[in-house]
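Q&A FORM
Asked by: J.P.
Topic: structure of Shikimate kinase

PROVIDED:
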Amino acid sequence: MPAMKLAGNFFLVGLMGSGKTTVGRALARRHGKTFFDSDHEIEARTGVRIATIFDIEGEARFRERERQMIAELAQRKNIVLATGGGAVLNPENRRQLAAHGTVIYLRASIDDILTRTQHCTNRPLLQTADPRGKLEQLFAERDPLYREIADLVIDTTQQNVNLLISQLEERLGQPPKPPTEPDQA
Ligand SMILES: Nc1ncnc2c1ncn2[C@@H]1O[C@H](COP(=O)(O)OP(=O)(O)OP(=O)(O)O)[C@@H](O)[C@H]1O
Ligand SMILES: O=C(O)C1=C[C@@H](O)[C@@H](O)[C@H](O)C1
Ligand SMILES: [Mg+2]
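REPLIED BY: S.T.
REPLY: Here is the structure written out as C-alpha coordinates.
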Protein backbone atom coordinates (compact mmCIF):
# COMPACT_ATOMS: atom_id res chain seq x y z
CA MET A 1 0.00 0.00 0.00
CA PRO A 2 1.21 3.55 -0.69
CA ALA A 3 2.65 5.62 2.18
CA MET A 4 -0.04 8.22 1.66
CA LYS A 5 -3.30 8.33 -0.26
CA LEU A 6 -3.43 10.91 -3.00
CA ALA A 7 -6.41 13.24 -2.68
CA GLY A 8 -8.82 14.40 -5.38
CA ASN A 9 -9.28 13.54 -9.05
CA PHE A 10 -6.52 12.51 -11.44
CA PHE A 11 -6.87 12.95 -15.17
CA LEU A 12 -4.46 11.16 -17.48
CA VAL A 13 -3.75 12.68 -20.88
CA GLY A 14 -1.41 11.63 -23.69
CA LEU A 15 -1.32 10.04 -27.12
CA MET A 16 -2.99 6.70 -27.77
CA GLY A 17 -0.81 3.91 -26.45
CA SER A 18 0.96 6.12 -23.92
CA GLY A 19 -0.48 3.98 -21.13
CA LYS A 20 -3.35 6.08 -19.78
CA THR A 21 -5.71 3.14 -19.28
CA THR A 22 -3.04 0.82 -17.87
CA VAL A 23 -1.50 3.37 -15.50
CA GLY A 24 -4.90 4.86 -14.62
CA ARG A 25 -6.35 1.54 -13.49
CA ALA A 26 -3.32 0.78 -11.32
CA LEU A 27 -3.27 4.27 -9.80
CA ALA A 28 -6.98 4.08 -8.97
CA ARG A 29 -6.61 0.64 -7.35
CA ARG A 30 -3.74 1.77 -5.14
CA HIS A 31 -5.45 4.95 -3.98
CA GLY A 32 -9.01 3.76 -3.51
CA LYS A 33 -10.38 5.80 -6.39
CA THR A 34 -12.93 4.87 -9.02
CA PHE A 35 -11.43 4.37 -12.44
CA PHE A 36 -13.08 5.62 -15.62
CA ASP A 37 -11.91 5.56 -19.19
CA SER A 38 -13.76 8.06 -21.37
CA ASP A 39 -13.43 5.84 -24.48
CA HIS A 40 -14.89 2.86 -22.59
CA GLU A 41 -17.74 4.96 -21.20
CA ILE A 42 -18.61 6.16 -24.71
CA GLU A 43 -18.54 2.56 -25.94
CA ALA A 44 -20.76 1.44 -23.04
CA ARG A 45 -23.27 4.22 -23.69
CA THR A 46 -23.46 3.72 -27.46
CA GLY A 47 -23.04 -0.06 -27.42
CA VAL A 48 -20.45 0.04 -30.21
CA ARG A 49 -16.69 0.30 -30.52
CA ILE A 50 -14.99 3.67 -31.03
CA ALA A 51 -13.88 2.54 -34.49
CA THR A 52 -17.53 1.96 -35.43
CA ILE A 53 -18.52 5.44 -34.24
CA PHE A 54 -15.76 6.89 -36.45
CA ASP A 55 -16.97 4.78 -39.40
CA ILE A 56 -20.65 5.55 -39.10
CA GLU A 57 -20.82 9.04 -37.62
CA GLY A 58 -17.38 10.45 -38.38
CA GLU A 59 -14.78 11.98 -36.09
CA ALA A 60 -16.66 15.25 -35.46
CA ARG A 61 -19.65 13.43 -33.92
CA PHE A 62 -17.30 11.27 -31.85
CA ARG A 63 -15.66 14.47 -30.54
CA GLU A 64 -19.07 15.77 -29.48
CA ARG A 65 -19.81 12.52 -27.62
CA GLU A 66 -16.38 12.81 -26.01
CA ARG A 67 -17.03 16.43 -24.96
CA GLN A 68 -20.29 15.43 -23.26
CA MET A 69 -18.67 12.48 -21.52
CA ILE A 70 -15.72 14.49 -20.19
CA ALA A 71 -18.00 17.26 -18.92
CA GLU A 72 -19.99 14.62 -17.02
CA LEU A 73 -17.04 12.67 -15.65
CA ALA A 74 -15.15 15.80 -14.54
CA GLN A 75 -17.98 16.46 -12.05
CA ARG A 76 -17.30 13.18 -10.21
CA LYS A 77 -15.27 13.02 -7.01
CA ASN A 78 -12.28 10.85 -6.17
CA ILE A 79 -11.81 9.36 -9.63
CA VAL A 80 -8.96 8.54 -11.97
CA LEU A 81 -9.94 9.26 -15.56
CA ALA A 82 -8.07 8.03 -18.61
CA THR A 83 -9.05 10.46 -21.35
CA GLY A 84 -9.13 9.74 -25.07
CA GLY A 85 -5.92 10.67 -26.86
CA GLY A 86 -7.61 13.53 -28.69
CA ALA A 87 -9.68 14.91 -25.81
CA VAL A 88 -7.35 17.89 -25.34
CA LEU A 89 -8.15 19.21 -28.82
CA ASN A 90 -11.32 20.78 -27.47
CA PRO A 91 -10.67 23.88 -25.31
CA GLU A 92 -13.75 23.12 -23.20
CA ASN A 93 -12.31 19.69 -22.33
CA ARG A 94 -9.00 21.31 -21.40
CA ARG A 95 -10.82 23.73 -19.10
CA GLN A 96 -12.85 20.96 -17.47
CA LEU A 97 -9.82 18.79 -16.83
CA ALA A 98 -7.60 21.60 -15.55
CA ALA A 99 -10.36 22.86 -13.24
CA HIS A 100 -11.43 19.58 -11.62
CA GLY A 101 -8.31 17.61 -10.86
CA THR A 102 -4.60 16.98 -11.21
CA VAL A 103 -3.67 16.45 -14.85
CA ILE A 104 -0.91 13.96 -15.63
CA TYR A 105 0.60 13.86 -19.12
CA LEU A 106 2.04 10.44 -19.95
CA ARG A 107 4.64 11.00 -22.63
CA ALA A 108 5.80 8.11 -24.81
CA SER A 109 8.12 7.97 -27.81
CA ILE A 110 6.65 7.30 -31.24
CA ASP A 111 8.65 4.02 -31.36
CA ASP A 112 7.14 2.85 -28.07
CA ILE A 113 3.66 3.79 -29.18
CA LEU A 114 4.04 1.90 -32.46
CA THR A 115 5.20 -1.21 -30.60
CA ARG A 116 2.41 -0.94 -28.02
CA THR A 117 -0.38 -0.42 -30.54
CA GLN A 118 0.71 -2.70 -33.37
CA HIS A 119 -1.79 -5.48 -32.64
CA CYS A 120 -4.74 -3.26 -31.90
CA THR A 121 -7.40 -2.47 -34.48
CA ASN A 122 -9.56 -0.19 -32.33
CA ARG A 123 -7.52 2.96 -32.87
CA PRO A 124 -9.08 4.29 -36.07
CA LEU A 125 -6.61 7.14 -36.50
CA LEU A 126 -3.77 4.60 -36.82
CA GLN A 127 -5.52 2.45 -39.45
CA THR A 128 -3.51 4.17 -42.18
CA ALA A 129 -0.69 3.27 -44.55
CA ASP A 130 1.73 5.41 -42.53
CA PRO A 131 1.01 5.13 -38.79
CA ARG A 132 4.42 6.60 -37.90
CA GLY A 133 3.78 9.71 -39.99
CA LYS A 134 0.32 10.02 -38.45
CA LEU A 135 1.71 9.74 -34.91
CA GLU A 136 4.38 12.34 -35.67
CA GLN A 137 1.67 14.70 -36.87
CA LEU A 138 -0.54 14.02 -33.81
CA PHE A 139 2.43 14.51 -31.49
CA ALA A 140 3.33 17.86 -33.08
CA GLU A 141 -0.27 19.08 -32.80
CA ARG A 142 -1.02 17.77 -29.35
CA ASP A 143 2.17 17.88 -27.27
CA PRO A 144 1.67 21.63 -26.62
CA LEU A 145 -1.98 21.02 -25.63
CA TYR A 146 -1.14 18.19 -23.23
CA ARG A 147 1.56 20.38 -21.69
CA GLU A 148 -0.76 23.37 -21.43
CA ILE A 149 -2.94 21.62 -18.85
CA ALA A 150 -0.49 19.15 -17.29
CA ASP A 151 0.40 19.51 -13.61
CA LEU A 152 2.92 16.72 -14.13
CA VAL A 153 4.66 15.36 -17.24
CA ILE A 154 5.89 11.76 -16.93
CA ASP A 155 8.18 10.19 -19.52
CA THR A 156 7.11 6.56 -19.90
CA THR A 157 10.03 5.39 -22.04
CA GLN A 158 11.56 2.18 -20.67
CA GLN A 159 9.51 2.39 -17.51
CA ASN A 160 7.20 -0.36 -16.48
CA VAL A 161 3.85 0.48 -14.95
CA ASN A 162 5.00 -0.08 -11.34
CA LEU A 163 7.95 2.26 -11.80
CA LEU A 164 5.70 4.87 -13.35
CA ILE A 165 3.32 4.70 -10.42
CA SER A 166 6.14 5.04 -7.87
CA GLN A 167 7.49 8.04 -9.74
CA LEU A 168 4.07 9.57 -9.87
CA GLU A 169 3.49 9.05 -6.16
CA GLU A 170 6.88 10.49 -5.32
CA ARG A 171 6.27 13.59 -7.38
CA LEU A 172 2.64 14.08 -6.36
CA GLY A 173 3.33 13.41 -2.70
CA GLN A 174 5.50 16.52 -2.50
CA PRO A 175 3.88 19.66 -1.15
CA PRO A 176 2.75 21.91 -4.02
CA LYS A 177 5.56 24.02 -5.42
CA PRO A 178 5.42 27.76 -4.81
CA PRO A 179 4.57 29.74 -7.95
CA THR A 180 7.61 30.31 -10.16
CA GLU A 181 8.48 32.59 -13.04
CA PRO A 182 7.61 31.13 -16.47
CA ASP A 183 10.31 28.73 -17.67
CA GLN A 184 12.87 30.70 -19.69
CA ALA A 185 14.75 27.65 -21.01
N1 LIG B 1 4.91 1.80 -19.44
C1 LIG B 1 4.59 0.83 -20.28
N2 LIG B 1 5.52 -0.04 -20.70
C2 LIG B 1 5.21 -1.03 -21.58
N3 LIG B 1 3.97 -1.26 -22.10
C3 LIG B 1 3.02 -0.42 -21.71
C4 LIG B 1 3.25 0.65 -20.79
N4 LIG B 1 2.09 1.32 -20.62
C5 LIG B 1 1.19 0.69 -21.39
N5 LIG B 1 1.71 -0.36 -22.03
C6 LIG B 1 1.03 -1.26 -22.99
O1 LIG B 1 0.73 -0.47 -24.13
C7 LIG B 1 -0.57 -0.76 -24.64
C8 LIG B 1 -1.37 0.53 -24.68
O2 LIG B 1 -1.60 1.00 -23.35
P1 LIG B 1 -2.97 1.70 -22.94
O3 LIG B 1 -4.11 1.01 -23.59
O4 LIG B 1 -2.95 1.80 -21.46
O5 LIG B 1 -2.76 3.12 -23.62
P2 LIG B 1 -3.78 4.32 -23.72
O6 LIG B 1 -2.98 5.55 -23.49
O7 LIG B 1 -4.94 4.07 -22.82
O8 LIG B 1 -4.24 4.26 -25.23
P3 LIG B 1 -5.61 4.85 -25.91
O9 LIG B 1 -5.52 6.34 -25.90
O10 LIG B 1 -5.59 4.34 -27.30
O11 LIG B 1 -6.76 4.34 -25.11
C9 LIG B 1 -1.15 -1.84 -23.70
O12 LIG B 1 -0.97 -3.08 -24.33
C10 LIG B 1 -0.31 -1.74 -22.45
O13 LIG B 1 -0.19 -2.98 -21.81
O1 LIG C 1 -5.93 10.10 -30.42
C1 LIG C 1 -7.14 10.14 -30.73
O2 LIG C 1 -7.62 11.09 -31.38
C2 LIG C 1 -8.00 9.04 -30.26
C3 LIG C 1 -7.58 8.25 -29.23
C4 LIG C 1 -8.38 7.19 -28.62
O3 LIG C 1 -8.23 7.24 -27.21
C5 LIG C 1 -9.86 7.31 -29.00
O4 LIG C 1 -10.47 8.34 -28.24
C6 LIG C 1 -10.02 7.60 -30.46
O5 LIG C 1 -9.50 6.49 -31.15
C7 LIG C 1 -9.31 8.88 -30.90
MG1 LIG D 1 -6.98 3.92 -23.20
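FOLLOW-UP: The pocket of adenosine-5'-triphosphate (ligand 1) is lined by residues 14, 16-22, 39, 82, 84-85, 116, 123, 156, 159-161, 164 (CB under 6 Å).
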